[in-house]
Specification:
This protein is mainly α. 67% of the residues lie in helices and 0% in strands. It has two domains: 53 residues, no CATH class; 32 residues. It has five helices and no strands. The longest helix is centred in the last third of the chain and has 24 residues.
Length: 105
């Protein structure tokens, strides 16, 4: 089996990787890097390809997904308070403007 062959993975694992990859791409990660990270996460959670008999029935470890979610806010937290506050005020104005626009339409 050549490297990168995904035939040993279950359909669920493939769906998981696809979903994780989409999330990375939404955040601006390049396609190849997003795919690499997605499969690394699936491997870490499930212990690799599960189609063969060996190793099936092992519990999944969801800590890699939680870690990704926790790290998501670090970039924002590193910005100065004034910058975060300005962004929040601008977002509030936009939401207010959009709500008024929807109400009048």
């Amino acid at each position: 089996m050549p490297r990168g062959d995904k035939s040993a993975y279950t359909d669920k694992q493939k769906r998981q990787a696809e979903h994780i990859e989409e999330g990375y791409e939404k955040r601006g990660v390049p396609d190849e890097e997003a795919e690499r990270r997605a499969w690394a996460t699936v491997n870490k959670e499930t212990g690799g390809g599960k189609k063969s008999g060996s190793g099936r029935g092992q519990p999944e470890d969801h800590s890699p997904s939680r870690k990704g979610g926790k790290l998501g806010g670090q970039a924002s937290a590193a910005r100065p308070k004034a910058a975060r506050s300005a962004s929040a005020k601008k977002a509030a104005q936009t939401r207010k403007r959009n709500a008024a626009h929807r109400a009048s339409a």
